[in-house]
């Protein structure tokens, strides 16, 4: 297996193939991308946009396999334990990949030790959304409303330890309000209950919530990212009310530690071609996301920079999960 994959990778490099010329030069078996989040969320949407185009470029089918659970740990551990041959990869969101080792007593993996960063994929927007009947239309009004409720207000998330959960913890602390966490098995289920009015608010990825916002099923109160988003140019960032609040999540492609460098290089080059494809750029834009084009070293350096930042955020939040 190793010789077949490595030989194909070296052939691709030596010929300096581009675009569809990579077809038939890389892998002779389907590639599986493990996604540690449930179907229907932003990670799922972005992973499938990427996988569909990657298959065209490497000349084989690319299958996205959802393995949610434990805030993303189950899927990450499964990818870590897979054979390091380029046949099984991981797509993960920065919050799960970098935060979980600090948030969980035993996440089961170490991001820098157990995975090789293959390619950054995209950055995405995050928003604070509410059921249309919630008596608040801005962050300031939401804070005032929460303070008027003796027992606080409930917020939905994609599960314990997810970014949606942590953002609620940080918001409550920054705003001085009480928010009660309601975890779901995935972002899609959480969104459904906010739309139905069972839970008033949620911190959600723009990719999965934008269609509901546009249809009037949800209203958006603020953007979680430090800057306003192109898809919602008139919606203020939460940081405009709560200074210093906010994050910009990214999505990345990883391979298990031990994957041959030549295979990593071919996968990186293929990923870069995917992200520069006009149809992929447009598809990501339609979801409130955009390609994140970094060299492999730049992506590795970004991870090294953000790990201590997330460690500090988790420590400040006081959140801890078993």
Key traits:
single chain, 322 residues, alpha/beta, D-Maltodextrin-Binding Protein, domain 2, 2 domains, six-stranded mixed β-sheet, five-stranded mixed β-sheet, 11 strands, globular
Q: Nutshell version of this structure?
A:
The chain contains twelve helices and eleven strands. The protein is of the alpha/beta class and 322 residues long. Strand 6, helix 7 and strand 7 form a beta-alpha-beta unit.
How is the largest sheet built, in terms of strand order?
2-1-3-10-4-11
Q: What is the string of SSEs from the N terminus onward?
A: HEHEHEHHEEHEHEHEHEEHHEH
The total strand number stands at: 11
Question: What Rg is obtained from the alpha carbons, in whole angstroms?
Answer: 20 Å
The low-confidence parts are: 1-25
Q: Helix/strand-derived class?
A: alpha/beta
Estimated helix fraction: 40-55%
How widely separated are the two ends? Answer: 38 Å
Beta-strand percent range = 15-25%
Description:
This protein is α/β, with parallel strands linked by helices. Helix content is 43%, strand content 19%. It is built from twelve helices and eleven strands. It has helices spanning 2-15, 42-58, 73-80, 94-103, 111-114, 139-147, 163-175, 187-196, 206-214, 261-275, 278-286, 296-317; strands spanning 31-35, 62-66, 88-93, 115-124, 126-130, 153-157, 179-183, 201-205, 219-223, 250-256, 289-291. The strands form two sheets. It has a six-stranded mixed beta sheet with strand order 2-1-3-10-4-11, sandwiched between helices. A five-stranded mixed beta sheet has the order 7-6-8-5-9, sandwiched between helices.
């Amino acid at each position: 297996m190793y010789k077949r994959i490595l030989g194909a990778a070296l052939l691709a490099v030596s010929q300096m193939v581009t675009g569809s010329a990579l077809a038939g030069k890389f892998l002779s078996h389907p590639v599986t991308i493990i996604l540690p989040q449930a179907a229907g969320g932003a990670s799922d949407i972005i992973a499938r946009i990427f996988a569909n185009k990657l298959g065209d470029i490497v000349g084989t089918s690319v299958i996205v396999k959802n393995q949610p659970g434990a805030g993303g740990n189950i899927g990450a551990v499964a990818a870590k334990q897979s054979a390091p041959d380029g046949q099984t990869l991981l797509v993960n969101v920065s919050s799960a990949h970098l935060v979980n080792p600090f948030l969980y007593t035993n996440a089961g993996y170490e991001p820098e030790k157990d995975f090789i960063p293959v390619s950054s994929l995209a950055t995405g927007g995050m928003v604070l959304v509410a059921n249309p009947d919630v008596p608040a239309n801005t962050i300031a009004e939401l804070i005032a409303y929460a303070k008027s409720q003796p027992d606080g207000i409930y917020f939905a998330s994609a599960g314990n330890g997810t970014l949606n959960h942590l953002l609620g913890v940080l918001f409550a602390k920054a705003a001085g309000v009480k928010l009660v966490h309601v975890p779901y098995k995935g972002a899609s289920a959480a969104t459904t209950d906010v739309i139905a009015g069972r839970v008033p608010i949620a911190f959600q990825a723009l990719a999965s919530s934008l269609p509901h916002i546009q249809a009037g099923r949800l209203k958006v109160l603020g953007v979680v990212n430090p800057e306003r988003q192109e898809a919602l140019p008139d919606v203020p960032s939460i940081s405009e009310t709560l200074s210093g609040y906010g994050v910009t999540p990214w999505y990345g492609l990883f391979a298990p530690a031990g994957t041959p460098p030549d295979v990593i290089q071919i996968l990186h080059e293929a990923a870069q071609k995917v992200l520069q494809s006009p149809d992929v750029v447009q598809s990501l834009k339609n979801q409130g996301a955009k390609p994140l084009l970094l060299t492999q070293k730049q992506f590795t350096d970004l991870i090294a920079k953000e790990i201590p930042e997330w460690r500090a955020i988790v420590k400040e939040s006081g959140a801890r999960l078993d």
